[in-house]
Amino acid sequence: MPLTILALIHVTPGREADLIASLTTLAEASRKEEGCIQYDMHLDNEDPSFIMFYETWETKALWLEHMKSEHLKVHNAATEGCIAKLSLHEMTKQG
Fold first, then answer.
1. 12 to 38, 51, 60, 61, 65: CA distances (angstroms)
2. Domains held by the chain: number
3. What is the pLDDT of residues 39-89, one digit of tens each?
4. Quick check: is 30 in a domain?
């Protein structure tokens, strides 16, 4: 059964451009990974410091492999201090 990930990101003020640039690169690489069905970044229309990712993976195991990927490690190192708050939600589509 596919796994949906909802990532809610609150950006450290003044670091929005840095984080969005890195997230754009991360998304491009992630979409090429095995098991990635959808990997979309959404920017809040009113609050530039709020970003949401909506991801769908074929399986949880493949998402966990993504979480260990080299491009995610590079992104995390490059954006240290850019994220004020992050919450990840593992979800399953119903209906």
1. 26, 11, 29, 31, 27
2. 1
3. 999 999 999 999 999 999 999 999 999 999 999 999 999 999 999 999 999
4. yes
